[in-house]
Amino acid sequence: MRAQAAIDGAREQITAIFENRVTTQRTPGSFFAMFGPDGIVFEQGFGETVLGEGVVPHRDTVFRIASCTKSFTCTMLLILRDRGQLNLDAPITDFVPAFRALSPAAAPVTPTVRMLMTMSAGFVTDNPWGDRMEEMTRAELNDFVAVGVSYIATPGTGFEYSNLGYALLGEVIAEVTGLSYVDAVSTEILTPLGLTSTRFDRDPSPDTETALGYRLANGAWAEQPITGPGMFSAMGGLFSTATDIVRWSLWLARALDPEDSSDGPLSSASRRELQQIQRVIPKNPLKEAVYAEPTAHGYGYGLFIDEGTSKIVSHSGGYPGYSAHMRWHAPSGLGIVAFENGTFASVAVPATQALQGALNSYGDLSVPAAAWPETLAARDTFDGLVRNWDTPTADAVAAVNLALDVPYGERIAAIATAVAKVGPLTGAPLTEVERKLGDTPAMTNWTIEGERGRITCHILMSPELPPRVQTFKLETESH
Questions:
Q1: Is residue 456 part of a domain?
Q2: Which segments constitute the Beta-lactamase-related domain (predicted)?
Q3: Are residues 389 and 320 in the same domain?
């Protein structure tokens, strides 16, 4: 299995990365689980779940996953959207009437549900503040938004990470379902997917091992209090285990496979929608070194997405005493879940390094799309037309625009000019140009050899059924 081989190839590197987290006092305890399309492939824990007890974190140790909760919140919103119960473009005041729009002053704009989901409501980034707001009551939230919210941009015009926005989305879910946010997510998502160790409060069972959270203060670890459910739980209230979050990650990731047939509370199409860039995030030059290739970076629905020659989906979580990260690479199916019990530990850093190490070991990560059979048949036809033009043959495969865009007389003359530059043609069969990642099934390129050079030909098929040739181009190159 390629996933196993890739992870095995980076095993020593990955182990050292996470072991170093504890030895350098980044965190009291650290755990990671690397997975492939079929589940966990490599896992390891370091340090302690509770200082002084000597228990090493494992796949069923409970950690707070903090903002990884946001993907659950957006899944619930899309469930309601798909049932026809929710319009994502409805203003937040439809669900939280107390909300007061203040920005811009000249013509206030009320953020919509979609703006809140995509972090484009214009609110101030609020990670430290939001982390302390979980237990806010409904009355307190209503009083807060009735006064007004600070804006840094006009709603709908840019990205700014907001926990407050997700607290409001929790109220959307409660208003639509008639249940509390916690009960709605538990009933509609956690139970159907069998995420039995994922919940919004600390499991009181003595059989459940929960990692305590710590903050490094003056060289010593200080235990941090655990907050309970409240109005801000929709932004980061979940407790979970690596076992469950790997299962959750795979359920989302499998939807990116065109042949996915997995079921669950949300369709594959809507799960793919979660994992598409909905709001572009301007690049931070200080962070560009993390990415090995040019990427488009943005936010989907409760998930960060990086698109380049391949696709990576991720989200981090940070709470007082905890750090979490989930991350998967769509083409290979490789991914990682990592948890630590230290404030500001930023486990996303070693998790990203670990996954990249496995991807480096994996080899060819992305395979260009194969050409349609109709594309290849049209290629063969036009290869023959370059060698010996025949208008009825061209008409048989040409889209209606081909002769209108460039009349056949001009095309025949252009072919003759090209042959004169590189010819005479050798009679050797065509050579298919190696396909690139950007090539779609509707296009292909090939070369025809002449004694003094070669002709490179390109065709693009039309969207009709059956597809026909809408574009034909050629250029010459001398030996």
A1: yes
A2: 15-348
A3: no
